[in-house]
Amino acid sequence: xxxxxxxxxxxxxVHLRRLLVATAAAGTGFLFLCTLGYAMAHxxxxxxSLLRLAWCLTPLATTVYFALAVARTDPGTRPRPGLAAxxxxxxxxxxxxxxxxxxxxxxxSMVALLFFLHLRGDLTGxxxxxxxxxxxxxxxxxxxxxxxxxxxxxxxxASVTVAWVMRxxxxxxxxxxxxxxxxxxxxxxxxxxxxxxxxxxxxxxxAGVRSTQPAGSRAAGAARVGAGGTPPAxxxxxxxxxxxxxxxxxxxxxxxxxxxxxxxxxxxxPWGIAVLAAGLAVEAYAGKQDTTPLPGxxxxxxxxxxxxxxxxxxxxxxxxxxxxxxxxxxxxxAHPGALRLLAGRILMAEATRIxxxxxxxCAVASGTYAMTTLHxxxxxxxxxxxxxxxxLLVTGCTLATLATAAVEAKHxxxxxxxxxxxxxxxxxxxRSAAALRAGAVLALFGPLTLIVAELAxxxxxx
Length: 462
Description:
two-stranded antiparallel sheet
């Protein structure tokens, strides 16, 4: 009920993203049902049915990835002040996100079932009744448990993925958790304080107030008190002193006063290159050893091609954040100005958030280009409607995921943008920085996509 209330009261842009998730789930569910119809019509070809089911896993993965991106940008399930007081802590909000994702995917699955029954001719009274009777086996009864199982894959996998990724984590520093003391009594691992630290010489600060006096000066003051026997003067009797940022040398400042260290570069670039090379090697060795037809009338080494393309996509997704971070570093090289410095720092800060969707888009674009090259060299001139639907689903979900990640990154740096505007930075400079970031990303990922596509299609066109 809470998920329904949050869904109803969301912004129209949020409703649009959820509607896109439902549309993607409907398309993926329809592909699964069409695979079931092919298996019923061609019971003597189990290998072809399994191959089509394997090809449906790609739209399934992209749909789940898009649903996860939409759930991460949902403002209705973000932790806000006061929600924990009414019982909506991080765990409840995670459950609400998973339930909202499941509702959107269930809506799409219901639409897919209705459309499938309509094309089979089981539902009449509408246009195009029985239009898919030639490949959906309308003369055979539909196994309802198998159909419901296939339709439930998208909602179940999407909701479980959202719940796993958005699960609450313990952000307490190490060493502050609970421990078990004597006879099993619970306690904490905080250091114990001695008897004299409470009231002697104001050594214990007030609650919520952090001492800004360096540790060395406090020890020296305690030594002076012990030597002379005179306690220090009260705070009202001493003149005001300068703040640590004005008079204290930088070496004695409290570490929390320094700005945070820059985020390290992503660690997945070497692994991504290794997996990408492995995928291209698998595609090269696959060749045309297997004559199993691919969906859409293409022929080639289907098992090897599937494994190779999967490894290639995983490698590009792993290497995407590292490549995006590299783009940011290259923008700041060779005596950068304010514009290049701003664009490069933003790319480096958002490398993990937008790098992985960029890698997935690169993988999909290279796979589409390779399939187009294969279709030009194949004997069958036409691509079937189901293959076209699958390509549209994969391409649309990846592009929508990238756009959603860009919107999430824009919201994440809203405070920085507002601070720049308050400091007097012109709006044209921010737009120029955005255009420079897009140009740098295209300059790196565009040639990479073409190179990977050519290497993936070369062994299959020999």
